[in-house]
Amino acid sequence: MILNKDDLHASLSDPVLDSMNFLNEITCRYPDAVSFAPGRPHEGYLGVDDIFGFLQGYLAHLARGGIPPEQVLSAVYQYGPTAGRIRELIADWLRKDEGIQVAAEAIVVTVGCQEAMLLALRALFTGPDDVLVVPAPCYVGITGAARLLDIPTVAVPEREDGIRAADVAVAVTAERARGKRPKAIYLMPDHANPSGATMSPQARTDMINMAESLDVLLLEDSPYRLVSGGLRLPALKSADHDCRVVYLGSFAKTAFPGARVGFAVADQQVRDACGRVGLLADELSKVKSMVTVNTPSLSQAAIAGLLIAADGRLSEFNTRTARHYEAALRTTLEQLEKHFPPEGGAHVRWNRPSGGFFITISLPFKADNAALTRSAECGVIWTPMSYFYPQGGGENMIRLSFSYLKLNEIAEGIGRLARFVELETLGPQGEQPGWHA
Ligand SMILES: Cc1ncc(COP(=O)(O)O)c(C=O)c1O
């Protein structure tokens, strides 16, 4: 049987999915290129044997808590509760590291933050008039999940300090005026992916106030905050007295992505037709029971062991890793300054994020897939920023991810980027400026 692509869900024809395939394919085709494309965490500080230590640490923790041996066995070998086995440990960590006070019952452990996004969107969005407000540019995980669920998104352009409440308020009001229901705003307050932008303290307060006054929910996603050095601003969820924030958590950067463990904090109350009140987390669990049943017990055990080893302080556990990211960010900026001096006339501009994994660069020519292929031939790979603007934008911009590269690889990669930019702007014979413009 031959299936017609047009008969499959429309999201499968979304250019973003093709773009991601293209990026993977380019990376495989040019294995010697320095790749600034993947947002992978640095692996330098964990050893293969550590995983056994984490598992044993969790099992010992259960035994110390008086759990009978057969239940300890089940904790790794069996199906588990849909909402997760390690909610207490996550609640303890959130309290110690983030000042977020939530009951374990308000947490659902998920298969990565990605599943938390999917569950939240499925539960909150009910029909074609419900819209999700997202920043532009935006992390493709959320826009892609919305696309899978046929949830329309409305893009609000980010400023230098991230998405602003006043801009969101304008978008929400405009959507309501045309009969739509903006249900939630997705935001990445710290070192956003892809822009690197961080919201100021005032912008955070304004956002919470705006959510209360316009009666919308905020979906807060901040995987980079605990692995970044410098001043750490409070999570929106830590000041969320009216339960406006659904917190979408990830252990991919603070622990390791191989576990695929994330979580949602959903402490909002939900009242049913009979007046019974439960938590949004209970509803997310129901969705989860039909998506992944439960997050693998083995993965939860590994993350739990790490949380126990760190005594619930992942920020301290990540001190060395955060220092590596700081050095990688600094090196990338220094190399950009070296290779693109202001007097060089290359018209290359970049931002200076205070942390995270990403820098964005604007180039004096179109940074599309064709340019990426030519760049890979020069030995350097990056992500076109246009991938992060579902409604258009970022055509001359690229994202560099420096997180998993060694400092010498960064230096080599930026040198190659400079050669690529030179070739693009001078033309093949060095006589036609802007030949790909
Ligand atoms: C903004 C954002 N959210 C979430 C994640 C991680 O999601 P997961 O826990 O599913 O790996 C990433 C990682 O790339 C990200 O950049």
SSE run: HEHHHEHEHEHEHEEEEEHHHHEEHEEEH
Helix content: 40-55%
The chain-level structural class is alpha/beta
The molecules bound to the chains, other than polymers, are: pyridoxal-5'-phosphate
- Give the number of DSSP strands: 15
Which spans of ≥5 residues are poorly predicted at pLDDT below 50?
430-437
How does the overall form come out from the CA principal axes? globular
On the 0 to 100 scale, the average pLDDT is 94
Strand content: 5-15%
User: Biggest sheet: strands side by side, in what order?
Assistant: 2-8-7-6-5-3-4
Rg of Cα set: 23 Å
Biggest sheet descriptor? 7 strands, mixed
Distance between the termini: 45 Å
SS summary, helix count? 14
Task: Please tag this protein with its features.
seven-stranded mixed beta sheet, four-stranded antiparallel beta sheet, binds pyridoxal-5'-phosphate, 437 residues, disordered C terminus, alpha/beta, 15 strands
How would you describe what is shown here?
With 437 residues, the protein is of the alpha/beta class. The chain is 41% helix and 14% strand. It has helices spanning 15-29, 50-64, 69-77, 87-98, 112-124, 140-148, 165-177, 201-214, 280-289, 297-309, 314-317, 319-339, 369-377, 407-426; strands spanning 34-35, 107-110, 130-136, 153-157, 181-187, 217-221, 245-250, 262-265, 269-271, 277-279, 349-350, 358-362, 380-381, 383-384, 397-401. The strands form 4 sheets. Strands 2-8-7-6-5-3-4 form a 7-stranded mixed sheet, sandwiched between helices. The chain has a 4-stranded antiparallel sheet with strand order 11-12-15-14, with no helix packed on it. Strands 1-13 form a two-stranded parallel sheet. Strand 5 (181-187), helix 8 and strand 6 (217-221) form a beta-alpha-beta unit. Helix 1 (15-29) runs parallel beside helix 13 and helix 5 (112-124) crosses helix 6. The longest helix has 21 residues, at 319-339. The model is unreliable at 430-437 (pLDDT under 50).
